[in-house]
Amino acid sequence: MLLLKYDEAAQAATPPDPALFEEMAKFNTAMVDAGVLLAGEGLLPSAKGALVSFDSEEPTVTDGPFAEAKELVGGFWILGVDSLSDAVSWARRAPFRDGERIEVRRVSEPEDFEGIAPPEVMEAEEELRARQAQQHG
Questions:
Q1: Which of 17, 24, 49, 74 has its CA 20 to 30 A from that of 60?
Q2: pLDDT single digits (tens) 95-131
Q3: What share of the chain is helix, strand, coil (3-state, %, to 5)?
Q4: pTM of the entire predicted model
Q5: Where does the signal sequence lie (predicted)?
C-alpha cells in the first residue's frame, strides 16, 4: 500500500497546480496499464471528517479539522506487486510537490497471523473474505 502523507495546513495555503491532476492521471494510468493498481483514492480534507478516539470506556468523536496533526494521510493506492522494491519503484514515480511523502507498507495477509490467532478466528476470517468476494465480485 502506498500512503500519501502531507501537511494539510501547508497544502491549503497553496492549492495544487491544475497540471498536477494531469500528471496524477498519467501516473494512475501507468499503474493500470502495468496491471498493478488494485485500488486507489484521494481523501478529502480532515475538516470533512471525524476522529474517533478510544481513550476511555466509550469512544469519543471529534469533528475535523485535525489541527493538532502535523501530517495526515491524503490518499492511498493498493498495488499488487512482487516486492517492497517494486512498490518503492512505483512510489518514486508519483508526481508530487515538495513536502509530500509516500509511506510504503505491506498489507497483512491471513498467513501472517498463522500460529498467533486462534484457529477458529482464522477460519472465521476466511469465511468473511469469501463472503466479501461474493458481495463485491
A1: 74
A2: 987 788 999 999 998 889 989 999 999 999 999 999 9
A3: 40, 25, 35
A4: 0.85
A5: none
